[in-house]
Amino acid sequence: MSSPPFCAPCARIDDSSPSVKFCMDCEETLCNECVRAHKTIKILMSHHLIDVEASLAMPVKVMTSQKQCDTHSDFILDFYCTYHDSLCCQSCISLEHRGCDKVLPLKEASKNIKDSALLSDTTDGVNQILITTEEIIKNRKIGIQKIEDGGASIVESISTAKMSIINQLEEMQKSALSKLADVQDIVVLQMKIECDDAEQTSKLIQKQTQQMDFLYTHGSNNQIFVFLQKLKIFLADENKFIKDFIAKLKEPSLFYKETPLFASDQDFGSIELISQPCCVEYKETKHHEARLLFDIKSTPRLFSLHNEIIDFPNVKCSGISGIVFIDQNKIAVCSYESSKLYVYDIDGTRLKEVQLETPCNPWGLAYNSTDQTIVVNLAKHKLQFIKNFIAAPALDIPEGATYDVSWVNDKFYVGGRDLKGPDGITSDGKGNVYVVGRSSNNIHRLALDGTSSEVVLKQEDGLNEPIAICFSNDYKKLLVSNNKGKSISVFDCVHN
Description:
- The protein contains 9 helices and 27 strands.
- The chain has helices at about 10, 30-40, 50-55, 65, 90-95, 105-110, 115-165, 170-220, 220-250; strands at about 20-25, 30, 50, 80, 85-90, 105, 250-260, 270-275, 300-310, 320-325, 330-335, 340-345, 350-355, 365-370, 375, 380-385, 390, 395, 405-410, 410-415, 425, 435, 440-445, 455, 470, 475-480, 485-495.
- Strand 1 and strand 2 (about 30) form a beta hairpin.
- Helix 7 (about 115-165) runs antiparallel to helix 8 (about 170-220), helix 7 packs parallel to helix 9 (about 220-250) and helix 8 packs antiparallel against helix 9.
- It starts with 7 loop residues before the first helix and ends with a strand.
- GO terms for molecular function: zinc ion binding.
């Protein structure tokens, strides 16, 4: 094992102190004295230090190319514009982002990046491409074997046909075999080229994975954030390449067609090449959205009625008792009078219905976006989980836990009978609390600090004994179970 390099700062003053650490921000080795300076000098205290042995294990040069701005090579990437979802330097800000009202320092933008959805989604995207390329490689190799096996079978068929005719047809056999070899060579060559292309893509992805694994273990938040920003652009290009690549792939097969009657200038038969679409499935990776959203943390200025959803079967009195968004344009609802869960689009078209365990009077539901699971309180001391719109057996819960249910991280909470009060409660991106007044036909908004309250929707806005309430994930729409729960009012949230 080679000895650690000398301290870079000391070497500049002709000293040869052995290094013990590597600064990921300065990109140079440090001795004990220089490490002490990094820990005591205020401007250096935030630098990310790793063992010098770990720096020697870096699979590639991962720092310098990430820090320099591609447009202005003399400047460092120190900022992130949330409006354009792009990294930028000081020069970029003055030239291209002068009017942007939310440009963050890289250190702030990259905070908690190791626990972010951006890292998780990007990792999933990398893994998905690796899995797909491996499927392509496996498929191509199987195809090559299939072609080669098919050729061998045809050789045997040609030999059998040869034996049924007189010896003077020997040249005809040679001609047929020659044409078979030509077809095989062309098809196998093309499939080998496709296999090589898939292997090349796989190697590129593996290199990116190595860099990401190293940065996750040894890199700073800034470096991981910058790497992910560049990697998502790379993944978008590779996704398009994989999609187009799969669309062009074929599943060729060789068939031998014997000629029953032929003249002396004909072959034994013909070799036919039939191609089917490739069976490898293209799987789209997750869309990488901006990590920071600046508009969801504002308080809606007013609410405008967009539409009413009224197509709810078996609803007479108690009505819709629970609403939740399962994506930006789909909602799941339950009714105290129905033993089914319904899925609608935001315009009111019913898409699915799921039978719940009976007997039940569902009141309240929640959605876990991480594993796409819905939980319904059946109001019979039972909870039922629904994943991929398939209902699992109901679970028993303590007596009295019969009302609304909420999902927080990996835990869920169930409301009981000891607390009497409003039917529906939710909050906006700013943290303001919205309380449904069922008997007063209005909705109150309470400030996060409790210093003020106001009525934001009332009977004049069309409210009639409202029950449940929820915001969309982007806080651009507000849903209210209205008219004793017989309909859902969809309000557009105006933020400015």
